[in-house]
Amino acid sequence: MKILLIGAGAIGASVAACLKQNKYDVTVVAKYDEYAKAIREQGLYISGQKGEFVVKMNAVARLEELNDKYDIIFIATKAYDVEENLIKIRQYMKEQASVVSLQNGICIDLYKKYVGSKHTVGCVVGFGATMQERGNIIITSSGTLEIGRVGNDFVGKLSEVRECLNSVFPTKIVDNIYESLYSKLIINSCITSLGVITGKTLGVMLKNKTVRNVFIGIIKEAMAVAIKLNIQVPPYANKINYYKIYKRKTNSFITHLIIKIVGKKYKNLKSSSLQSLERGKKTEIDYFNGYIIKLALQGEVNVSLNEQLVNMVKEIEEGKRKSQMENMLDIQYS
Questions:
Q1: Where are the beta strands (DSSP E) in 7-113?
Q2: Each residue's pLDDT tens digit, 22-61
Q3: What is the dihedral sign for C-alpha 61, 16, 77, 113?
Q4: Which of these, 6, 108, 103, 130, lies nearest to 59 by C-alpha position?
Q5: Is 18 helix (H, G, I), strand (E, B) or coil?
Q6: CA 287 to chain centre
Q7: Are residues 275 and 300 in the same domain?
């Protein structure tokens, strides 16, 4: 079985390294010539929750350098780079290939458009990772993965995808992957936007009551959208029940306690978009809180808090504002 992984950021590199460590035939598309060369010659250095190891593997900078076809293609790029890669990959797919979305944001419609639902696999990534520098990745938190098809015409083999991803962390197949993706999108919208706005790791920012209040407010708006559009949202990681948070008051002691526990457990987690900004790249805010706003327009739901957060992140992207805790004083929430 031949595997292709596109995008060697923190999550992509972690997946590729774990697959290679478990003897899978993996090729990585790393975007940059020097990075691809380093993966081939020095290897990827992994530390953290999966232990410490180095693995070398085949790597190229561009898809055009490949002349093979693959059984499974994982796409772990930023959401805004997905479309460009999907346009190109059909010639590298075997007849019954599975194309797996490893994005945090919801990009499933793009996958269905370019490779079809018969090849598309949605995936909820439940672990965290940070790239210290290219090729040096810390897996900061463990977690399960969930995968599922997006159409009844799927021709790939979910069992093979699950077997591969079990090399990373335990993986299960779910019936409705979109609902699981939306569940992850909610928590990501909280972590991503607030991480960029505060400039802090999850543990530090969730010690602050105002941050927790806004965190809860994001969840409430996202759930108002879900209820209006009849999206059934499962508890995130079987622990965070969004429906209960939605029904409780923002200042609920129980809800704040839950959020504090999340902050303590994943205290070293740094927003992926904050990491992007630190490397001079743009964020994926349009695919997180921006996606909630997009759905809200369909259901005519008020999501003014999410709109404020998107605008603030855009200001930070444009250099008009710095990432700092003081930004929280400018946010209006109820």
A1: 25-29, 44-48, 53-55, 58-60, 70-75, 93-101
A2: 999 999 999 999 999 999 999 999 999 999 999 999 999 9
A3: positive
A4: 6
A5: helix
A6: 10
A7: yes
Residue pair 151/91 in contact (Cβ under 8 Å)? The answer is no
Q: Are residues 85 and 132 in the same domain?
A: yes
Same domain, yes or no, for 155 and 189?
no
CB 202 within 8 A of CB 266: yes
What range defines the domain where residue 314 resides?
179-330
- Percent of the residues in the chain that have a pLDDT greater than 90, as a whole number: 88
- CA R_g for the chain: 19
Asked if 28 and 96 sit in the same domain, the reply is yes
Residue 117's Cβ-count burial label (10 Å; 0-12, 13-18, 19+) is: middle
Task: Pinpoint the alpha helices (H) of 143-288.
Answer: 158-165, 177-198, 202-205, 209-228, 242-247, 253-265, 272-278
199 and 169, same structural domain? no
What's the whole-number mean pLDDT along residues 206-222? 96
Both 151 and 7 in one domain: the answer is yes
If pLDDT is split at 50, 70 and 90, which confidence band does 104 have? confident
Task: pLDDT band for 253, please (50, 70, 90 cuts).
Answer: very high
317-325 own/partner pairs: CB under 8 Å, 24+ apart: 317/277, 317/282, 317/283, 322/199, 323/196, 323/197, 323/198, 323/199, 323/274, 323/277, 324/198, 324/199, 325/198, 325/199, 325/200, 325/205, 325/208, 325/211
Q: pLDDT grade, residue 239 (50/70/90)?
A: confident
3-state secondary structure of 291: helix
Mean pLDDT of 200-225: 96
Decide: 292 and 221 in contact? Cβ < 8 Å: yes
Q: Does one domain contain both 57 and 158?
A: yes
Residue with tokens 């759905």: 295
Residues with Cβ within 8 Å of residue 188, at least 6 apart in sequence: 104, 105, 288
CA distance 275 to 77: 14
User: Cβ atoms within 10 A of the Cβ of 224, count?
Assistant: 17
Structure tokens at 259: 């959020």
- Asked if residue 170 and residue 61 are part of one domain, the reply reads yes
